[in-house]
Design goal:
Layout: E1 10-11, H1 30-53, H2 74-86, H3 100-111, E2 120-122, H4 123-139, H5 155-172, H6 174-180, H7 183-195, H8 209-218, E3 226-232, E4 235-244, H9 260-280, H10 302-316, H11 320-323, H12 326-329, E5 332-333, H13 335-340, H14 347-355, E6 363-365, H15 368-378, H16 383-398, H17 408-417, H18 428-439, H19 441-452, H20 455-477, H21 484-496, E7 498-502, H22 513-519, H23 530-546, E8 568-570, E9 575-579, H24 595-611, H25 633-651, E10 654-657, E11 660-663, H26 670-693, H27 707-718, E12 721-723, H28 725-734, H29 740-749, H30 752-757
Parallel strand pairs: 4-6, 7-9
Antiparallel strand pairs: 1-8, 2-12, 3-4, 5-6, 8-9, 10-11
Helix pairs in contact: 1-2, 2-3, 4-19, 5-18, 5-22, 7-16, 8-14, 9-10, 9-17, 10-15, 10-16, 18-19, 20-21, 20-24, 20-26, 24-26, 24-27, 26-29
Length: 770
């Protein structure tokens, strides 16, 4: 998305959600409810048959005693069926101590297929699929439905629903968009050409690279640098400007510029796309793209120059694992110092353009070395090459927002880079749903909450997180490698972690329709101006961000919409955030089912996010979110020694590719692997404490698994799934999370409780921090 402006968060899940093919246009009528009851009854009969006919015998297990009561509620039946279906058909032949991933996921793999429009599929994707069906129904309804929480039949509610509906309808009108074609995209390119012409004259003396970058930033397009506003890591109550790098220079990561077959395909994509746009442009426009001898043909060496420039910038950038390290990226400088690093771009002028009269006293420079090298790269470069590079950035950002054959090569290339068939397109409604969730997420969140999130669900989430906090404090107290003073500070930090559950009630308050009206008042939407709607929303997002310069940090802001299937820890805010989207069935989030399921699935998510407060990055922030040295030397050394174990362990894992094994980056994934291990053990101890107070029932068909083992089955099933090869490679290069199979087998091998539950010969975890 062109306006993807993500804060520095520790995400639990990466990638975008992909929706299902089936069309849920049926409303929740009496017939639909009857069909659901019939389905539940059928599943109940099925699982009852399992109980009578089969007995499941996990390796090394002590079966549950027969006098324990079996839960036969609809929720338990559905949960049991999910687990039974996920288990490997040959589970009796698999040692869970050595290969828990196969043990718990082979059945899942056999019963799920990847759609052609997907690059990956997994259990958590099923939640996203269900959420998207709910959102589709909302967006395709003629009027909002009064449900339960805070909808009111007032004109403000009708107004914001109208804005929601128009945003979606404008995107869905493919006939109109086809008739418009590439014109809106070309207009952006024309504006760039005017602001940064190849031939600089006295009449356009302000046409500098700085001026061009101001324009790109105003429409949410990333060039060779980024400027963002957010919390100061060493003063988290204050906002500061950060001067950084783009998330991508063109290809997904710097490693791709060394893959000749990808680079060749990328060049062909750029050439075909730009030449097609050139043929649709006015004869007097985009002059620099044109070949001297054949004006309607793309300049012969232009594409090579664009990719060469991108490649040199990518090589100059720090490795991604270094960009994850706050100790390397927090470089406060004065505005004059920031200005001095690059003679080709005026940082002062850009900041003045967006911040007005605000003159920041400091700027956080992510990589001074990159800025200096960038200056030497740009200095001898022709304006024509730089203009073409910037134009390509606009096309990459906004090409998906037009319906025209000219941008088809780009769409096909993006498919290939994810391992999909180049000709595949997802259903239009899925794309348009993503646009709505990107451009006006909080209006969509209001109606999603009405339909899909109960007060009981929020209570369950709060309770699980409070329990995990208590258990994490116990773990800190038992951590002999931490000195007593550090332990006390760490315990204080846990107590001060803010937990946000479900949806925001401030900045904006989605329960207050007038607050939503005010929040989106500057976004202008029409049902027949899709491209303009997008630009309006993106510009508004940029404006709102820069309005925070020199203002206190608004700690009520959320970084994810309510329907998002994800969660995050924000170190500067010392907060953990769980959107309602991830707190959904069918992955064992249900107040009515045994607690070991909810704690094994969602509890491990909550524990994971809390553990980020003490991982390789989060440990640098104190209880108030300040980046500071609050650990003493001996504790730091002990941590580093234990962390190296995780680096070695995950560095020995690899995925199979057509070119041979590709190893996991143990340093890039270190923080996430530590969080996985800490989260799982904290969730287990939290459940066990609850179970002592009020023992859970066992599930039908799984009575020969102990409750402890079923806890770990719930955890494992949460991570079942796989990716296409190209997508898996892309994630290895750039994702701080390990591949799902290693989040299962690697994490459980680091769990003492898992080894005890399955009676593994080796009880000692491979690596252990908490």
């Amino acid at each position: 998305m062109a306006n993807e402006r993500t804060p520095l968060l520790r995400s639990y899940i990466t990638g975008t959600s992909e929706a299902p093919e089936n069309d849920p246009s049926l409303k929740f009528s009496r017939v639909a409810r009857i069909l659901r009851l019939i389905l539940v009854a059928a599943l109940l009969a099925l699982v009852t048959a399992f109980i009578v006919v089969i007995a499941i015998h996990p390796s090394g297990d002590n079966p549950t005693t027969t006098d324990e009561k079996i839960c036969t509620s609809a929720g338990c039946v559905l949960a049991a069926a999910t687990l039974i279906k996920s288990l490997s058909p040959r589970y009796e032949e698999i040692d869970p101590c050595n290969d828990f991933h196969s043990f718990v996921c082979e059945g899942w793999d056999a019963s799920h297929e990847m759609r052609q429009d997907q690059s990956s599929v997994g259990t958590l994707q099923l939640i996203s699929d269900e959420n998207q069906l709910i959102l589709k129904h909302i967006l395709e309804s003629p009027a909002p439905e009064q449900v339960s929480l805070f909808w009111t039949a007032t004109s403000p509610d009708q107004e914001i629903f109208g804005k929601l509906h128009d945003t979606y309808s404008a995107c869905m009108n493919e006939t109109l968009l086809r008739s418009i074609g590439s014109k809106p995209l070309l207009e952006l390119l024309y504006q760039l050409e005017e602001k940064y012409p190849v031939n600089k004259t006295s009449s356009n003396k302000d046409s500098s690279l700085t001026h061009a970058l101001e324009y790109l930033m105003s429409i949410g397009v990333s060039g060779p640098i980024t400027l963002d506003v957010g919390a100061d890591d060493k003063d988290p109550d204050s906002n500061v400007i950060t001067l950084g790098l783009p998330w991508s220079f063109g290809l997904p990561s710097k490693q791709y510029y060394k893959r000749n077959e990808i680079v060749t395909l990328y060049k062909a994509t750029i050439g075909a796309t730009l030449e097609a746009l050139l043929n649709e442009a006015h004869d007097t426009k985009l002059a620099i793209f044109r070949d001297i001898d054949t004006p309607h043909i793309l300049s012969k060496d232009l594409v090579d120059r664009i990719v060469s420039l991108e490649s040199r910038m990518a090589v100059a950038a720090p490795d991604i694992e270094d960009l994850q390290d706050i100790t390397k990226t927090y470089n406060p400088r004065t505005l004059d110092e920031a200005e001095s690093y690059n003679q080709q771009i005026s940082i002062k002028a850009i900041i003045k353009s967006f911040a007005g009269n605000h003159k920041p006293t400091k700027v956080i420079v992510v990589s001074p070395e990159y800025l200096q090298t960038l200056s030497t790269i740009l200095a001898p470069e022709k304006r024509a090459t730089i203009q073409a590079y910037l134009a390509w950035k606009i096309v990459q950002s906004y090409g998906g927002s037009v319906e025209d054959d000219a941008v088809e090569p780009l769409r096909r290339f993006n498919n290939i880079i994810r391992g999909q068939d180049p000709e595949v397109k997802s259903e239009r409604w899925k794309k348009c749903l993503g646009v709505v969730d990107s451009d006006i997420p909080w209006i969509l969140s209001r109606f999603f909450i009405e339909r899909a999130f109960s007060k009981e669900s929020k209570v369950l989430g709060d309770r699980i997180i409070y329990d995990i906090k208590d258990q994490f404090i116990n773990k800190l107290k038992a951590s002999e490698w931490m000195t007593e003073d550090v332990q006390k500070l760490a315990i204080d930090k846990v107590g001060l972690i803010r937990q946000k559950i479900g949806y925001p009630t401030s900045s904006p308050n989605i329960t207050d329709v007038e607050d939503l009206q005010k929040f989106y008042k500057d976004i202008h939407v029409s049902a027949d101006t899709f491209f303009e709607n997008r630009v309006s929303a993106i510009k508004n997002g940029v404006k709102q961000e820069w309005e925070q310069v020199e203002k206190p940090v608004d700690k009520d802001v959320w970084g994810m919409s309510a329907s998002t299937v994800n969660a995050y820890y924000n170190p500067a805010g010392n907060e953990i955030v769980f959107p309602a989207g991830i707190m959904q069935a069918p992955v064992f989030y249900d107040p009515s089912i045994p607690k070991y399921l909810s704690y094994g699935a969602f509890g491990a998510v909550a524990g994971h996010e809390l553990s980020h407060a003490f991982d390789s990055s989060g440990r640098n922030y104190d209880q108030h979110g300040n980046y500071t040295d609050w650990w003493d030397g001996s504790t730091i050394e002990a941590f580093k020694e234990k962390a190296e174990c995780f680096v070695r362990q995950y560095g020995n894992y690899s995925i199979d590719t057509k070119d041979g094994p590709l190893s996991v980056n143990g340093r890039l994934t270190l923080g996430e692997n530590i969080a996985d291990a800490g989260g799982l053990t904290a969730a287990f101890q939290s459940w066990r404490s609850r179970d002592k107070e009020n023992a859970d029932l066992i599930l039908p068909g799984l009575q020969n698994f102990t409750k402890e083992q079923t806890f770990f089955l719930a955890y494992g099933v949460t991570w079942c799934g796989w990716s296409r090869e190209e997508r898996a490679i892309q994630l290895i290069y750039g994702d701080p999370h390990s591949p799902p199979q290693f989040r299962i087998s690697g994490t459980t091998s680091n769990s003492r409780e898992f080894r005890e539950a399955f009676n593994c010969p080796q009880k000692k975890p491979t690596c252990e921090l908490w």
